[in-house]
């Protein structure tokens, strides 16, 4: 079980109000990702759930029990930190066994659980090493192992992959997703990387300045962003925003179009000159300076040999235009 | 080639300093060693004769030697115990956020700057004096007989005085170590259900071992040679109750005018210090390796 409900939760540090009243329900077994730019309060929100920060007002309910005043260790949650926070003077075995030892389990029970977790995480050969002798990915797995053995109601991940290199990040991302499939435990994952959010989440919570901008499945957020912020944050490369006369013609303040929804065709709606062409092999991203709509990013097939200074003509795909009013809300 | 040359040059450059330091150490040591084998009494100058190991024999067999040796060890261990335990406690307190933290931290280090003679005299005359001392006044205020610290418990009083001057040193080193403790580790332990006690025992203390080792090693070197505090308070008495090895060496050479015997005592003190150093390095030196 791992249902977590936040109702009217706020947090202020002195005068600074970091999180205005916020309501959120996380269902049992869900993989929820908190995503947002740095300083948006996503880590603070996670720490409020963990109990590492005190809530200024409101209520945290875990599995139907009010946990607002409960100590972090008693909430039945396990957390994986950005720095891994392994205990440097203990071996991997002792690190993983630490929560069990604190819970007062016998030595045999501890060993059995540690061995089992080590097997799941491919750590069996490293149990007698110290964290300092492990690579980044292995340390990450030890941190996850320490969380798993507690059999928590929910896992909390605080930007766990940001210290890894790009290749390892992809692998660990898949491993965490697989872990979620196997354990079927609620997971809350904080990241600023929208790719991680899109690939892993059942439900994404987009945060901006402590407020929830939108909650939904990755595709929901991609297909129908509620406002400019979500539209700009989800999707890579970013959605193009067009203002001025071109937007007014569509009856809105801001017009949005994703780079992948623009076609290259003669006699199109917008004409311009290629400023920059990024050839990734599979795709090519073009920065096109158009006369009508300003600078647009366009994704074309990687086979297209276009270079700086080439003239192109662009057409938006039917029904893929997003319209936003003056307050930034989707129309 | 270039590195070989620069290495040679580097050796040449540092050699004057190294040679000077070596002479600084070896000349007094050599002379002490030489004197320790002479019958050398200041009352009969110019009559030195070779006596072999007699000085050592008489120094060790004098009745004050074993009490002095035990007092030396008690003094070192007592001060170490107080400063390490007290230092950890104070460091934990000072690590808490509170108003005026900076000022308090500066004030904590103050006793370390009071020179030993002055510190001991202040304690002797202003605190421990059975008539005018502050403790005497406090005892009288609650209707108790004033306690004459320096004659009733001379060694314990000296341990207290020396510990007072070394406590800031231990506190400061342990405080800096405490501040380098990773906050996320503490939070992780909190999530793992560890209470304050377990966190202290399983995280803080292991994190501090290296600094505690440094404190113990440095303090031991200085505490083996405590002298000023004894000279100005008890003069080693009553009897030999507060005489330690350095003080015994002093009384042998300058109160009994027996330079040969004092030198022998000095060599014995050097050997003792080395034994202690070897023991310490064996026991806790491995903490300093990464």
Structure description:
- The complex is a heterodimer of chains A (331) and B (290).
- Chain A is 27% helix and 32% strand.
- With 331 residues, chain A is of the alpha+beta class.
- Chain A folds into two domains: 4-230, P-loop containing nucleotide triphosphate hydrolases (Rossmann fold, 3-Layer(aba) Sandwich); 237-324, Nucleic acid-binding proteins (OB fold (Dihydrolipoamide Acetyltransferase, E2P), Beta Barrel).
- In chain A, strand 15 (283-290) and strand 16 form a beta hairpin.
- Chain A is globular.
- By secondary structure, chain B is mainly alpha-helical.
- The longest helix of chain B has 34 residues, at 2-35.
- Chain B has a single domain (55-288), classed as Orthogonal Bundle (MetI-like fold).
- Classes of the chains: A alpha+beta (331), B mainly alpha (290).
Portion in beta strands of chain A = 25-35%
Per CATH, the class of the largest domain in chain A reads: Alpha Beta
> How much of the polypeptide of chain B forms β-strand, as a percent range?
under 5%
With helices defined by DSSP (H or I, 4 residues minimum), what is the helix count of chain B?
Answer: 13
Average pLDDT of chain B: 88
The secondary structure category of chain B is mainly alpha
Strand order of the largest sheet of chain A: 6-7-8-3-9-10
In the residues of chain A, how many domains can be counted? Answer: 2
Within the CATH hierarchy, at the fold level, what is the topology of chain B? MetI-like fold
Distance between the termini of chain A: 39 Å
Topology diagram in text:
The complex is a heterodimer of chains A (331) and B (290).
Chain A: E1 4-13, E2 16-26, E3 31-35, H1 42-50, E4 57-62, E5 65-66, E6 77-80, H2 92-102, H3 107-120, H4 136-148, E7 154-158, H5 166-183, E8 186-191, H6 194-200, E9 203-208, E10 211-216, H7 218-223, H8 228-233, E11 240-243, H9 245-249, E12 254-257, E13 262-264, E14 270-279, E15 283-290, E16 294-301, E17 311-316, E18 322-324
Helix pairs in contact in A: 2-3, 2-4
Chain B: H1 2-35, E1 38-39, E2 49-50, H2 54-61, H3 65-94, H4 101-113, H5 116-127, H6 134-141, H7 149-152, H8 154-179, H9 183-191, H10 196-223, H11 228-233, H12 245-255, H13 259-284
Antiparallel strand pairs in B: 1-2
């Amino acid at each position: 079980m791992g249902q977590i409900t936040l109702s009217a939760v706020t947090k202020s540090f002195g005068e600074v109000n970091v999180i205005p009243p916020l309501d959120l329900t996380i269902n049992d077994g869900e993989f929820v990702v908190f995503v947002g730019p740095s300083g948006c309060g996503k880590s603070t929100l996670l720490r409020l759930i963990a109990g590492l920060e005190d809530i200024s007002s409101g209520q945290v309910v875990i599995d139907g029990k009010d946990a607002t005043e409960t100590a972090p260790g008693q909430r039945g949650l396990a957390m994986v930190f950005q720095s891994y926070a392994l205990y440097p003077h203990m071996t991997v075995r002792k690190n993983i066994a630490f929560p069990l030892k604190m819970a007062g389990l016998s030595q045999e029970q501890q060993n059995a659980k540690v061995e089992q977790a080590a097997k799941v995480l491919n750590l069996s050969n490293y149990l007698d090493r110290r964290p300092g002798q492990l690579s980044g990915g292995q340390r990450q797995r030890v941190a996850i192992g320490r969380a798993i053995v507690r059999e928590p109601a929910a896992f909390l991940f605080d930007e766990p992959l940001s210290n890894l290199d790009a290749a390892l990040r992809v692998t660990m991302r898949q491993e965490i997703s697989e872990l979620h499939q196997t354990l079927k435990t609620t997971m809350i994952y904080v990241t600023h990387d929208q790719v991680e959010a899109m690939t892993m989440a059942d439900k994404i919570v987009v945060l901006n300045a402590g407020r929830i901008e939108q909650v939904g499945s990755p595709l929901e957020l991609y297909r129908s962003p509620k406002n400019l912020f979500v539209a700009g944050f989800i999707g890579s490369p970013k959605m193009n925003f067009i203002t001025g006369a071109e937007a007014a013609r569509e009856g809105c303040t801001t017009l949005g179009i994703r780079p992948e929804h623009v076609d290259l065709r003669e006699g199109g709606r917008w004409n311009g000159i290629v400023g920059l062409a990024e050839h990734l092999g599979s795709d090519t991203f073009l920065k096109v300076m158009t006369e009508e709509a300003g600078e647009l990013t366009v994704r074309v097939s990687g086979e297209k040999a276009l270079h700086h200074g080439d003239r192109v003509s662009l057409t938006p795909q039917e029904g893929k235009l997003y319209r936003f009013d003056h307050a930034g809300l989707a129309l | 080639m270039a590195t070989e040359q620069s290495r040679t040059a580097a050796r040449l450059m540092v050699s004057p300093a190294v040679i000077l330091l070596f002479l600084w150490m070896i000349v007094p040591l050599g002379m002490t060693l030489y004197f320790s084998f002479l019958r050398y009494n200041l009352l009969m100058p110019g009559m030195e004769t070779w006596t072999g190991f007699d000085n050592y024999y008489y120094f060790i067999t004098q009745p004050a030697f074993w009490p002095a040796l035990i007092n030396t060890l008690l003094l070192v261990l007592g001060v170490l115990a107080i400063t390490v335990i007290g230092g950890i406690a104070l460091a934990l307190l000072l690590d808490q956020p509170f108003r005026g933290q900076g000022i308090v931290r500066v004030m904590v280090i103050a006793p370390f700057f009071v020179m030993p003679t002055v510190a001991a005299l202040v304690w002797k005359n202003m605190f421990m004096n059975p008539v005018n001392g502050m403790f005497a006044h406090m005892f009288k205020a609650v209707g108790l007989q004033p306690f004459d610290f320096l004659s009733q418990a001379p060694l314990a009083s000296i341990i207290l005085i020396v510990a007072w001057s070394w406590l800031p040193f231990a506190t400061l080193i342990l405080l800096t170590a405490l501040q380098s403790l990773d906050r996320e580790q503490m939070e992780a332990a909190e999530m793992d259900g560890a209470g304050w006690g377990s966190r202290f025992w399983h995280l803080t203390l292991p994190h501090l071992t290296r600094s505690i080792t440094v404190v113990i090693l440095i303090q031991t070197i200085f505490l083996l040679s405590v002298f000023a505090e004894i000279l100005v308070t008890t003069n080693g008495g009553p009897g030999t109750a507060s005489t330690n090895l350095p003080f015994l060496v002093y009384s042998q050479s300058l109160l009994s005018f027996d330079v040969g015997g004092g030198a022998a005592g000095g060599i014995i003190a050097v050997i003792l210090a080395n034994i202690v150093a070897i023991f310490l390095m064996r026991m806790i030196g491995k903490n300093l390796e990464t």
